[in-house]
UniProtKB/TrEMBL annotation, chain A:
Superkingdom as given in the UniProt entry: Bacteria
Organism: Caulobacter sp. 602-2
Protein name: Molybdopterin synthase sulfur carrier subunit
Signal peptide bounds: none
Phylogenetic lineage: Bacteria, Pseudomonadati, Pseudomonadota, Alphaproteobacteria, Caulobacterales
From TrEMBL, chain B:
Subunit structure, interactors included: Heterotetramer of 2 MoaD subunits and 2 MoaE subunits. Also stable as homodimer. The enzyme changes between these two forms during catalysis.
Organism ancestry: Bacteria, Pseudomonadati, Pseudomonadota, Alphaproteobacteria, Caulobacterales
Chain segments carrying region Disordered: 123-146
Organism (species): Caulobacter sp. 602-2
Keywords: Molybdenum cofactor biosynthesis
Protein name from the UniProt record: Molybdopterin synthase catalytic subunit
Compositionally biased intervals (Basic and acidic residues): 136-146
Catalysed reactions, as listed in the record: 2 [molybdopterin-synthase sulfur-carrier protein]-C-terminal-Gly-aminoethanethioate + cyclic pyranopterin phosphate + H2O = molybdopterin + 2 [molybdopterin-synthase sulfur-carrier protein]-C-terminal Gly-Gly + 2 H(+)
Family: Belongs to the MoaE family.
Length: 79, 146
């Protein structure tokens, strides 16, 4: 299971901020989310959205260890 | 050191603590950012951070800044959560042997914090809430140092 975290407008759109998803790769995780909420999956793949696995930014595909934390980060606004 | 806090903080107390015991420093520069009311358009500012990730990103950037400007020390305190107009949002202090480095490093840190730090900002006003992206001016300010 991966722990998925959403931030900013992505969390507002989804209606949740944190959820457990059974997936062993980012692609599987995106597919799982798309099954449930296609518009959210599209937003998660949208321009400027970065992905962090266990608090480190990743680009493209990544495999997910058990209990990985996957965060979807919309464009950062600064403080 | 970087701290995120949901509770309001007192900038003067932070500055006093930062200045204490510095007989080889010479210069401390500081900046305090306050939440603006925008003529009633912004009743509450809400800042979201990614705990752990946000502090690491800020600390990594500040360490680079410390090397670039030859700082002896730095301190950043940033609010998260809901912030009322007039409350302090951010405190930055830098310590150096000479004033120019301290002042420039403080400016440099603020430009980055305002435009690129991992926060997500929401403004709650009379017409509801909206997410804020960095302004063109914030981006231009940050690019001065690239």
């Amino acid at each position: 299971m991966a722990r998925v975290l959403l931030f900013g407008r992505l969390a507002d759109q989804a209606g949740w901020r944190e959820r457990e998803v059974a997936a062993d790769s980012l692609a599987a995780l995106r597919a799982c989310i798309a099954n449930d909420d296609a518009e959210l999956a599209e937003a998660l793949a949208g321009p400027g959205v970065q992905v962090a696995v266990d608090k480190a930014l990743v680009r493209g595909e990544a495999s997910l260890a058990a209990a990985a934390e996957v965060a979807f980060l919309p464009p950062m606004s600064g403080g | 050191m970087i701290s995120l806090t949901e509770a309001p903080f007192e900038p003067g107390a932070l500055l006093t603590a930062f200045c204490a015991g510095r007989d080889e420093t010479g210069a401390v520069a500081s900046f305090v950012g306050l939440a603006r009311a925008e003529g009633g358009q912004a009743s509450i500012l809400e800042l979201e951070a990614y705990p752990g990730f946000t502090e690491s990103a800020i600390a990594a950037f500040a360490k680079d800044a410390a090397a670039r400007f030859e700082l002896q020390d730095w301190r950043i305190v940033h609010r998260v959560g809901k912030i009322a107009p007039g409350e302090a949002v951010v405190f930055v202090a830098t310590a150096s042997r000479h004033r120019r480095a301290a002042l420039e490093a403080c400016d440099f840190l603020m430009d980055w914090l305002k435009s690129r730090a991992p926060f997500w900002k929401k403004e709650h006003g009379p017409d509801g809430a909206r997410w804020i992206e960095p302004t063109a001016q914030d981006r231009t300010d940050a690019q001065r140092w690239d």
